[in-house]
């Protein structure tokens, strides 16, 4: 594996809940390598989602450093974060997070719209992405006209359309049945491996961790252990 | 994010909630309409004043009087109090000076003489005015029959309609004159003469005064400023005055005390090419030491008296537009609550703060713009109705909407939209992406 793309140094994140202070992430350090599929695994409340949000710049850490390609994410302001997300990051969410009024095609092009890519170019790229996720026939359907699996495919297409260096997936299959879950995991890891993109998956499902090169098992805001896997399921695609 | 995408997305968002968008726009329509109609009534009133004043003569003509340096009778005497009054003479040099001033189109001396116009056995009293014939049209004299004087005219008169209808037979006593039928006189064709003998045609007539023959070239409309006037070329008038002086001398009369020196005039009319520059030119002439007045003085006084009314009208319109602006803000704030999640998603997938802000501002601006455009259409219709009612009641409350008012109404409504959308846009911008995305 190549050099590390994300380095997390002694990061903590405290939440204040009334009089109590909860440490969601507590003095955690981790390196994620370029092109690897990294799985943040843990029970609910283990701090895995918070860690993902911190890496993606959706939340600011209470202390510590998060370095993405030599850039300090924790020091970025809102504008810099927007640019960072626009250029380097793709997101897949458990609840798909598609805009309900836009068609599949428009949802996929949205990141390109914010980047100011001209209509024709972005439509071509969106069509390619929809083909890659097997939804070319559904380009003009609205999210409400699609199944959960199809919606997640649209959101995967949207996450990858910018050719981001890292794709974050937060419980990407939480709302899907088992069969669709495997389809989705094959698809997402396949796409990431193909372009040597880094994939960070948050899950509480042990089955999914089979797809990962590395499994980071979390507990109470700390890393319990890290499992390295020789074979990655994604490469079979 | 390109402007095109921004507008497309904004319109789409508004379209999604048609009824609410429509109602918000309706508020702006009502606001715009009321402000435009109120202002248009103010403008309409001013225009009808102007029309009224224009009946008295041209608004673009300044009457300049010489200043003898003694009594200074002027409306702005206060402004000149304490200043030594220099003597300002209206002579050929002064006229040349006026002609060279900016915005001055024509200049003519005005020489007045009260004489009788005679046609057969009938006479009519009239104020005879000698002017530079070339400047007659420019000075705002209008004819309803025949023509105005031109530069080529050496002699010939243009008669006011009221002069013609006041012909009477001087031989009759005044009671008989009252009962007598108005004589039928066609001055354009009948032989017409002028005389400075006030007793012409009566037994007191002075045989030593020779009446002057002259062709009639045109007739000026009755009423207005020139109904009782007779206009002739300056040269012809000067000749008559010379004759009169000669006759007076012969009679042993040494002439009146206020007799003007040769080549000096009591009054000069100055035509200004641009209505908006009349006051400016008038002030310049005053600064030269002359007394000057124009009908714009009267017009301004009239406008001043209705200023308060116009301000109140405008304020009524402004209130409804403010209500509409609050409506826009409310709609946009509501939209943020509904679209919190959407805003979060957009932020997470790379929308900059600027994009979010612009999106909301564009939506608000569009509401303002659409309201403005529909507003001027309804204003146009309202204006028609107001004028219809005004004509029926012969009221001065007419409505007039100039093009600039249409354009600035749309621009203003759009600006109001943007301003109303600013606070909501700021809120949308500040939403935390993470919290927003977790909102259900």
Q: Outline of chain A, from the CA principal axes?
A: globular
- Return the string of H and E elements of chain A: EEEHEEHEHHHEHEEE
Oligomer: heterodimer
Q: In total, how many domains does the architecture of chain A comprise? A: 1
Spans of chain B of at least 5 consecutive residues whose pLDDT stays below 50 are 77-84
Q: Which CATH architecture of chain A?
A: 3-Layer(aba) Sandwich
> Biggest interface between protein chains, with counts per chain?
A-B, 26 and 23 residues
The gist of it:
With 237 residues, chain A is of the alpha/beta class. Helix content of chain A is 32%, strand content 30%. In chain B, 52% of the residues lie in helices and 15% in strands.
Write the layout of secondary structure elements.
The complex is a heterodimer of chains A (237) and B (440).
Chain A (H helix, E strand, L loop, with lengths): L3 E14 L2 E14 L3 E6 L5 H8 L7 E6 L2 E2 L5 H11 E5 L10 H12 L3 H14 L15 H13 L5 E5 L7 H17 L3 E6 L10 E6 L2 E7 L9
Parallel strand pairs in A: 3-8, 3-9, 6-7, 7-8
Antiparallel strand pairs in A: 1-2, 1-4, 4-5, 9-10
Chain B lengths: L2 H14 L1 H37 L6 E5 L11 H4 L9 E2 H8 L4 E16 L2 E10 L13 E2 L10 E4 H5 L8 H6 L13 E3 L16 E2 L2 E5 L8 E5 H17 L13 E2 L1 E6 L5 H10 L3 E4 H44 L1 H9 L4 H41 L9 H28 L2 H6 L2
Parallel strand pairs in B: 4-10, 6-9
Antiparallel strand pairs in B: 1-12, 1-13, 2-11, 3-4, 3-7, 3-12, 5-9, 6-10, 7-8
